[in-house]
Amino acid sequence: MIPDEVEVAPVELNALFGRSVNGWTTAVANATGDWSAPTPCAEWNVRELVNHVVGEDRWTKPLVDRRTIADVGDSLDGDLLGDDAHTAAHAAADEAIAAVTEQLPIGGVVHLSYGDEAIEEYIRQLVADHLIHGWDLAAATGQDRTLDPEVVHAVSTWYGEREKMYRSGGAVAPRPAGVAGGDAQSDLLIAFGRDPSWSG
Length: 200
Description:
Layout: H1 10-29, H2 46-64, H3 69-72, H4 85-103, E1 109-112, E2 115-118, H5 119-140, H6 149-159, H7 163-168, H8 184-191
Antiparallel strand pairs: 1-2
């Protein structure tokens, strides 16, 4: 349960989602250079990282429309970027924002891979993913790594009660050994298994 002081009404969570996605699309728009370059996510290069988030965005509409994993099947597997990764990423983000804006106020549950989940919790997961992967992409492509401090605060508050569960389930990497934080952004990145000073 999220403490009362950080509960947000649907309209506020919707705005938070939009800000996190816009931070992501800004990083995509400014991503140039070698898209086979490494990222802070060791298993993904730049193109693979972008494809992952595009996949999340493309999944958002069917899931918030209350479709099941089986309904979607394998239609969103594989490469979703085609010949124009920037356009694909922005189109997927726009679709996700529109779907969340429409469906979040309705409330209820969505059908995720691990079972039914409150739509609000699912959107908070997406906020975190866009925020952290936006930093990943910025770091990998030599951009300004500064994140939206209000989104950082919201994600930090939400994630604080979930870090152990996410790590035990293999959803996030271990905290990097010997890496000190000291500010809200660095502390959050470390909690998500990132080294804030990462260099490819």
